[in-house]
Design brief:
heterodimer, A: 115 residues, mainly beta, four-stranded antiparallel β-sheet, globular, B: 113 residues, six-stranded mixed β-sheet, five-stranded antiparallel β-sheet, 53% strand
Chain lengths: 115, 113
């Protein structure tokens, strides 16, 4: 099993450009999450999904959109990148959301620099 | 007040030392608790869950005090390979079981020879 994979690993964007980050998991997990991690801020939840075709906002959703068309994939889109979106983005998945199911498994991260 | 608070450190300790990290959480309804480990420029990985009765995994011991809303991690006989950032993680728990976890900002441990 590859676990959780993320594409790309690193990207440089100019302000105003758009891009899509791809997350894929092969563990048949129902729940998937997108986080950003900034120095001194810890991990902050951007959006999450509790199943195929569903998405919901997390703590810091502004400037991002997501889609979960297939159970194994969770896409994060930036429509018009801003320097404030420079960060490390982690995708994670879990079997479920209840007690005993909520352990999250993370991808290796995508480092994004917006100039 | 942050929902999950940790002392960011860094904690610099010699090999073989015992070190303890503490974490407090704000929501008394929180249901599940974890410690994750994150190596430099890597993704977080589950280290251990924290149970009400306390639990041990080799050199690592986790404790939970619900009355004080306090979680701890004790590392005995520190190894160089223990150098990492340790994240305190709490599932606040809701009726919808979203699985949303709240992460502390992490405590950095540096074990020196």
């Amino acid at each position: 099993n590859a676990g959780v994979t993320q594409t790309p690993k690193f990207r440089v964007l100019k302000t105003g450009q758009s891009m899509t980050l791809l997350c894929a998991q092969d563990m048949n997990h129902e729940y998937m999450y997108w986080y950003r991690q900034d120095p001194g801020m810890g991990l902050r939840l951007i959006h999450y999904s509790v199943g195929e075709g569903t998405t919901a906002k997390g703590e810091v959703p502004d400037g991002y959109n997501v889609s979960r068309l297939k159970k194994q994939n969770f896409l994060l889109g930036l429509e018009s990148a801003a320097p404030s979106q420079t960060s490390v983005y982690f995708c994670a998945s879990s079997y479920g959301g209840g007690a005993g199911e909520e352990t999250q498994y993370f991808g290796p991260g995508t480092r994004l620099l917006v100039l | 007040r942050k929902e999950v608070e940790q002392d960011p450190g860094p904690f610099n300790v010699p090999e073989g030392a015992t070190v303890a990290f503490n974490c407090t959480y704000s929501n008394s309804a929180s249901q599940s608790f974890f410690w994750y480990r994150q190596d430099c420029r890597k993704e977080p990985k589950l280290l251990m869950s924290v149970y009400s009765s306390g639990n041990e995994d080799g050199r690592f011991t986790a404790q939970l005090n619900r009355a004080s809303q306090y979680i701890s991690l004790l590392i005995r006989d520190s190894k160089l390979s223990d150098s990492a950032t340790y994240l305190c993680v709490v599932n606040m728990g809701t009726s919808s079981n979203t699985g949303k976890l709240i992460f502390g900002q992490g405590t950095t441990l540096q074990v020196k020879p």
